[in-house]
Amino acid sequence: MDLNPATPAFAQTLAAALPEGTIDTPEARYLEEPRGRYAGQAGVLARPRSAQEVATLIRMAGEARVGVVPYGGGTGLVGGQVAPEGAAPLILSLERMTAIRDVLPEENVLVAEAGVILADIQKAAEDAGRLFPLSLAAEGSARIGGNLATNAGGTGVLRYGNARDLCLGLEAVLPDGQIWHGLTRLRKNNTGYDLRHLLIGAEGTLGVITAAALKLSPRPARTGTALLVIRDAAAALSLLALARDQMGETVSAFELIHRQGFDFLAETMPEVRIPFDTIPEWSVLIEVGTSAALDPAQALEALFAAALEDGLVSDGLIAQSAQQGRDFWTIRESIPEANRRIGSVSSHDISVPLGAIPGFIGEAGERLAKLGDFRINCFGHVGDGNLHYNVFPQPGRSRADHKNQRDAIKTCVHDLVHELGGSVSAEHGVGRLKVGDLERYTDPAKLSAMRAIKAALDPRGIMNPGAVLRAV
Amino acid sequence: MDLNPATPAFAQTLAAALPEGTIDTPEARYLEEPRGRYAGQAGVLARPRSAQEVATLIRMAGEARVGVVPYGGGTGLVGGQVAPEGAAPLILSLERMTAIRDVLPEENVLVAEAGVILADIQKAAEDAGRLFPLSLAAEGSARIGGNLATNAGGTGVLRYGNARDLCLGLEAVLPDGQIWHGLTRLRKNNTGYDLRHLLIGAEGTLGVITAAALKLSPRPARTGTALLVIRDAAAALSLLALARDQMGETVSAFELIHRQGFDFLAETMPEVRIPFDTIPEWSVLIEVGTSAALDPAQALEALFAAALEDGLVSDGLIAQSAQQGRDFWTIRESIPEANRRIGSVSSHDISVPLGAIPGFIGEAGERLAKLGDFRINCFGHVGDGNLHYNVFPQPGRSRADHKNQRDAIKTCVHDLVHELGGSVSAEHGVGRLKVGDLERYTDPAKLSAMRAIKAALDPRGIMNPGAVLRAV
């Protein structure tokens, strides 16, 4: 089904139907994405101020058969926010829909429009004595509509779930231009198919989220942080199970760090202090957030003692101050930047069943060794089975030297993930980058159901064409 | 689209394609449902032993254009499991698919076939030192496939979520007979539309769940229970917020009890001991489950003291033994039976936003008073905004005396719920009972999207025809 380009004439038609200043020509920033893999086509930019205006835009795009690319904070890592191919699209930015419509601390609910920046939601929750637990590197510029459209993950998933688990209701414009008023604040609602969960993670291909009712949590009164040296990668899982047995849901982060991460920090960011004399092969950063009645440092001491006895850990540090806790987090949070400075040959955002993690790490290393001599930095949200498994050149070589191997490396890693029942996109989504991976690895019954749903809800194929599913 | 009846000839065709004993004539129990509102048509009974056999049955039903009614434990309260109208169906019972395929305590995962009885899953989790927190009155006969198909709720939702929140992956047969192998154990997986959440809560209208990967939790080491007398219904919400501030996620149940519930118990089940000299107008049952490091009774004492100071509670009991805790639960769990013995005129499984609960209770009482003189028992999972709001005749009168008022009462309650942004089916689903309510109260954009999805995935309309959406 061929789409028409968003032409100046189309822009004029839109401009006549919408308030002044809604329609514009997109600046360069709307055509870029963080990793520089895709250059978007310009087309026309729309910056609506209400769901009603979004509905008008989608309806008119449908009539004109012009593709619509929803645009949030532009921080996505898989090219879901730019259209490098096909007819030039209508870029629909939610940046002007930034109202926090409601904060209801007693209900633990916050209602925000799609364009609110994630950090602003965190702040509004904090001001109300509550926690909005979605937390990720791009939170200073990512917008909640995009976080939901991509079902964002981040560091709080272990305790609080993915973005979809933090959403009670949605307002959205469907591909036919109808507004779905689904902004419910209900914890229980079994009236028909769960359209909310269908739109979340659909990356704008089934409609545009315009507002969301979000679930807040009590703020943990006290926080404890530890950096523990573990026996091996397998010990991470046993330690996690032990921690959850001892401390239940209070375990809020459980992040794996490999020696390679410390080495990259030493190499590229010497200002980040590493608190070990000998760099450990494997370590985990654990955070617990407890109620006032429980001393988190004491709980972590008890965990450390039990884990030492079980031979799971050999050494470790329990933060004795908030500052020391932040220092531990600085290490973890600086690793992606260190990676960027080194320059990866290939990066993988994968998940496998928890029990398969040690096997994955061992086997992936062996298979990659056959392809060449690489440095591997494997780190991330091990408590969720989600690893960032990134492959780097040896010192003295550059990523460009391995350019021709990139596809083989990616296939090697992704094939193994698939064999182990894992996912080749754990938290970043499919976008345009992984459309081929989705076709290769997704169960055929699911893929055909996805295509049938897409065709049913968006028969003209105008919504984010080419993302998630190949445009037909 | 007219369906054909499941005839003896069709039964023979199926029998020839499937192992001996798979195809049968349904006994009466497959045609009944707990509230006796619907009598199902007999048709043909199939009891497959594998997803492959389910796929064969669905494919052959599709070719013959025979409707398929999936059947779990038969405990549903909205008639989703029986077909009283239209062509006689193929009743597809999952009762022989009862394998627990895997228990992985370190991963907190259990993989069960759809026919496993909920209590057996709870038991298997317990044997592995884990908790499967889905808990509801029918757990001794309800099967997990049905629990998921209806997104069951129950008493553990406040802490652990609804059935959908406890499911990591599904194996299911789609309406075209394809098996979707989606039995992932992943915590994070952003590869395409979330088919799992679409099938969960679809009540068998988009396919048949044949197995599920379920999320287990650590077992709380210690449990505390309290029965607190609250100032009024509004105080329940403030008390809940206070409890969660003090104790975070350890609050695992928060159940509202009205004086009427105690009165019904005294009237019909005098063996249930009521631990108050003066029956309180409103009370709440609170359960907390903590790690070993925290004394739950002490935490409840602290909550009681703070709530007393805030004027939220006036009296209360904190269980001093496990037995006393169970006694408190016996009160709560006996209320539905007492209700049955009294005989309701109309029962409502509704939810409203937490903040709207006090207003709902007040306004519903006033509106109903205009319709007649009733006794109202309002109780339930107030922490989830989910109330069972049931209307009874005054003493000396029977439900039959009010038969003609039933529809008016239901509409009165449901209209108010809808005005308040609530749901007319919080946890029981739509089934056949609430198809009209769904049409009346559901947002038109959502309803048309639901119909489009149904038509796309099940173009012949064979899957549980007449449930959720009117058969077309």
Structural features, described:
- The structure is a homodimer of 472-residue chains.
- By secondary structure, chain A is an alpha+beta fold.
- Among the domains of chain A are: 100-218, Uridine Diphospho-n-acetylenolpyruvylglucosamine Reductase, domain 3 (2-Layer Sandwich), CATH 3.30.465; 222-419, Alpha-Beta Plaits, CATH 3.30.70.2190.
- Chain A is built from 14 helices and 18 strands.
- Chain A has helices spanning 8-17, 51-64, 118-127, 144-149, 157-160, 195-199, 233-247, 259-268, 296-309, 322-342, 357-371, 406-419, 435-441, 444-457, and strands spanning 23-24, 44-46, 68-71, 90-93, 100-104, 109-113, 130-131, 167-173, 179-182, 208-215, 217-218, 222-230, 251-258, 282-290, 313-318, 349-351, 374-381, 386-393.
- In chain A, the strands form 5 sheets. A 5-stranded antiparallel β-sheet of chain A has the order 5-6-10-8-9. In chain A, strands 1-2-4-3 form a 4-stranded mixed β-sheet, covered by helices on one side. A 4-stranded antiparallel β-sheet of chain A has the order 13-14-12-15, with helices on both faces.
- In chain A, a hairpin with a 4-residue loop joins strand 17 and strand 18.
- Chain A starts with 7 loop residues before the first helix and ends in a 15-residue tail after the last helix.
- The model of chain A has no long low-confidence stretch (mean pLDDT 96).
- At the A-B interface, strand 9, helix 6, helix 7, helix 9 and helix 13 of A face strand 9, helix 6, strand 11, helix 7 and helix 9 of B.
